[in-house]
Amino acid sequence: MRDVKKILEMRSQNFSQRQIAEALKVSRDTVRKVYKAADENNICCSMIQNQNEMEVQKLLFGKEVKLNLIIKQPDYQYIHKELLRPGTNIRLLWEEYADDCRNSNFPFYQYSYFCEKYRDYVKKNNLTMHITHKPGDKMMVDWNGTTMCVFDRYTGESVKAYLFEATLPFSMLCYVQACPTMKIADWIDCHINAYKYFEGVTRLLIPDNLKTGVISNKKYEDPVLNKSYQEMADHYDTTIIPTRVRKSKDKAAVEGAVGDCTIAIVGKLRNRKFFSFDDLNAAILKELDVFNNKPFQKREGSRKSVYLEEEKDYMQSLPETPFELSSWKCAKVQLNYHISVEKMNYSIPHEYVGNYVDVKVTKSTVTVYYKTNQICSHERLYGRKNEYSTNESHMPENHRKFQWNKERFINWALSIGPETNRVVERLFERGKVEEQAYKGCLSLPKLSDKYGKTRLEDACKLALEHINQPSYKNIKMILQSNQDMKERNTTNKHVSDTLAFVRGKDYYGGETMSNQDTIIKLKQMKSPVMAEQYEIQISDPNYNQLSFEERFNELIDMEYESRVNHTITRFIKNARFYDSTASIEDINYNPERKLNRSQMEELAANNYIERGLNVIFVGASGCGKTWLSNALGVHACRNRKTVLYIRLPELFSKFEEMRIQGKYNDYLKKIRKVQSFDS
């Protein structure tokens, strides 16, 4: 029973209903009912001073009227357990408690006092960890701050290894990875590997305000995230919520785990030397398993056991494929229907020979686009330079019919004669791999068709008499000059004077020195790609089969492609896009977005820029207008159009700044040179 007499006494002392309720730990509804009963019966405080509590209640409410003044206590243990489940919060549980009290005709605590009572329960039972964190709800990430070293096996030089750390605050399960840099590529790669290690994805991702992932996080504005970081989050269906600036307690779990991991991993590995990041990360994972399986001091189980038993079931499933960071390049389709990307060669449908294509490069794939349309895709090549990835469907029909291998070449050469067979075998001996000889061998049947089998056999014999490993070019010159038809008793000296294929170093004035001088001059002329490709040509015997024009054209094409890519990169950087990775090829044409595909493809032709027209995107906040405008701007840069991305408020502010400084006209002249504005 609550103190009804005390309520009337405090009323006479001019205490408010709220003050009385808080002082006596009763609901305000109870106070109002006592007030109402006293007023209806004209009872004041002076009339009940000599009466006890039961007499006052009888006087106010009578024998037949009973007022339940006992507040029903919440089941705090049940509330605490329910708060661990996804989709619940303290207000929802209070509403359920209040509804139950109303149905039972019991007074109940108001929301604020309900929360206060629950906080007292949590504090009393030392359950603070479970208040904030739910299983599978958050993953907190940060750089450890402590660095390790990876050494060069031959020079002994050391490279810093930065430690990434991810923690699940409910179970305190940790993941650690060493990286050579703290750039966006390594940052995202660490997240991918963390999700793989946890075998699931959390609902929320809590990073610090590092510039790698968070561009801006102002107090009263939505955070601005790095677009690649946001794309990664979208791929894994998680939401990034950066911590408040200078509020380390927002991710106290990962901050606390940093010290523990430093001792458990860095401390134990401090006396070991590692010569690769793979070896270092393998050692880290081994120590990490020990750390995660170590029993808690103040709690049952370990990080790993709590995760497996209580948290794993609440984790979201991993996507079918991991996220991949991409970059864009421009390349020309060569006469052999291949493009060169990162010094590797990929086939393109032969119809596109001579055209420039856009190439999207990820860690595992190379995807090729022509005028925004995807035309092919390859698995990315790694390893030795100048390898080939060729799709047979990309070849012309006559090339597909002409599919050769070493065995077939040898059989064909034997049908011509033993000397031709020797030449073919020598061609295969010259290359490191079998495929390097295919080009030269494929040219020999053409000579057979033009000059006949007999002359080809004689030419091969004559070539072998003077050259240990003759090329297609040598044999062709013999046939063109009719040397095979002359007398065979000509002396070697005479042959050396008349046949072009036996000219030596003396004739060319010292080839090695001349080549080196050419390379130096190309580098001085700021043509490093051409210089590098020229070095490849003079070191690869396979290039001897090409004509001067073919080799020269390849040098020019490689240098041109490099300069185009450099220009595109510079244009994109100078444009200052909000998202420089946006591309029209990645536009989502979901019917709900109501985007016109044909209209977007027409805009991709950049005709609106040439005609001086404007493009305006209209839609609700957050529907992707900025990303679409950036995608068009990036595409314009890829077509070598100058673009400037600037928000209208910033542009007007810039105008005012230039006007005050007296540079308004100069600024107008500067921006007039920009071919496209993205705002």
Task: Describe what you observe in this structure.
- With 679 residues, the protein is α/β, with parallel strands linked by helices.
- It has six domains: 123 residues, no CATH class; 182 residues, Nucleotidyltransferase, domain 5; 73 residues, no CATH class; 100 residues, no CATH class; 59 residues, no CATH class; 103 residues, P-loop containing nucleotide triphosphate hydrolases (Rossmann fold, 3-Layer(aba) Sandwich), CATH 3.40.50.
- 48% of the residues lie in helices and 12% in strands.
- The chain is built from 29 helices and 16 strands.
- A hairpin with a 3-residue loop joins strand 11 and strand 12.
Strand order of the largest sheet: 3-2-1-4-7
Kindly state the mean pLDDT as a whole number? Answer: 79
User: Helical stretch count?
Assistant: 29
Low-confidence stretches: 64-68, 491-513
Structural class: alpha/beta
- DSSP strand (E) fraction? 5-15%
- CATH class wording of the largest domain: Alpha Beta
- Largest sheet descriptor: 5 strands, mixed
Rg calc:
39 Å
How many structural domains does the protein architecture include? 6
Fold-level CATH name of the largest domain: Nucleotidyltransferase, domain 5
Number-wise, the strands total 16
Question: In the CATH hierarchy, what is the superfamily of the largest domain?
Answer: Ribonuclease H-like superfamily/Ribonuclease H
CATH architecture of the largest domain: 2-Layer Sandwich
Shape: elongated
Could you tell me how far the N terminus lies from the C terminus, measured between alpha carbons in angstroms? 69 Å
Oligomer: single chain
Helix content percent band: 40-55%
